[in-house]
Design a protein that fits this description.
- The protein is an alpha/beta fold and about 240 residues long.
- The chain has a single domain, classed as Alpha/Beta hydrolase fold, catalytic domain (Rossmann fold, 3-Layer(aba) Sandwich), CATH 3.40.50.
- The protein has eight helices and seven strands.
- Strands 1-3-2-4-5-6-7 form a seven-stranded mixed beta sheet, with helices on both faces.
- The two termini are about 25 Å apart.
């Protein structure tokens, strides 16, 4: 697969299944780098790299869900060419649900499972403060409070000038996208940080989006527990996709 949209850090053509990984707002495929040597041999990891980050840094970031899904669906043949599953963290969880819904609508194969991490259910409107349109200084302050952007990046004017358009675009999707409620015929496993102040009570509403088994695993951490518990998360995924 030559598209910059999909990064396969360790090609595994003999794998039985692909796990497509969707990062959080402002995130790039590097957030999953620790998984590369820890995924089971039956899994080929594929990191989703949307415009505005990584090797696509010079491309304008997308600021609405419909265009994100349109780009992903352009590669529907690759997405569905062998059994697959989705993992998403925060905004990435909602993108994975939207993509699975679109595949279902087009009568195409759907993921064997969705792992939804640190995200409210996508059919629930956010009750939190709208971030993407804040004035520059307030936006930076909110990013600092979210604790997902490294301090050295926040303090670099040059880096932030590059990243602000991407971050505003991603947060616009996160702030505004509300999915049509559609129960998918596939299991959903939700990961949640017990101290996550960003995700509210809508975490439990994920069970309304599946006709199959629903599971919830809680970690003792905040919104970005995925960094602290990377080994535990990939271990659970390995077990469930074995």
């Amino acid at each position: 697969m030559n598209s910059k949209l999909f990064v396969t850090p360790k090609p595994n053509p003999n794998a039985e299944l692909r796990l497509f990984c969707f990062p959080y707002a402002g995130g790039s495929p590097t957030i999953f780098s620790s998984w590369i040597e820890k995924a089971n041999d039956n899994i080929e990891l594929v990191f989703v790299q949307l415009p505005g980050r990584g090797a696509r840094l010079v491309e304008p970031a997308i600021d609405n869900m419909s265009d994100v899904i349109e780009e992903l669906m352009f590669y529907r043949d690759y997405l569905t060419s062998k059994p697959f599953a989705f993992f998403g963290h925060s905004l990435g969880s909602r993108i994975s649900y939207a993509l699975a819904s679109q595949l279902l609508l087009e009568n195409l194969p759907t993921p064997q499972k969705i792992f939804a991490s640190a995200s409210r259910a996508p059919h629930c409107k956010s009750g939190k403060r709208i971030l993407h349109a804040l004035p520059h200084d307030e936006f930076i302050a909110e990013l600092r409070d979210l604790n997902g952007t490294p301090k050295e990046v926040l303090e670099s004017k040059e880096l932030m000038e590059l990243l602000i358009p991407l971050l505003r675009a991603d947060f616009k999707i996160a702030d505004t996208y509300v999915a049509e409620q559609r129960a998918l015929p596939l299991p959903i496993h939700v990961f949640h940080g017990s101290d996550d102040e960003i995700v509210d009570e809508h975490i439990a509403a994920w069970q309304e989006l599946t006709t199959q088994p629903y599971q919830l695993t809680e970690f003792a951490g905040g919104h970005f527990f995925i960094h602290q518990y990377a080994d535990e998360v990939i271990s659970i995924i390995n077990q469930q996709l074995a």
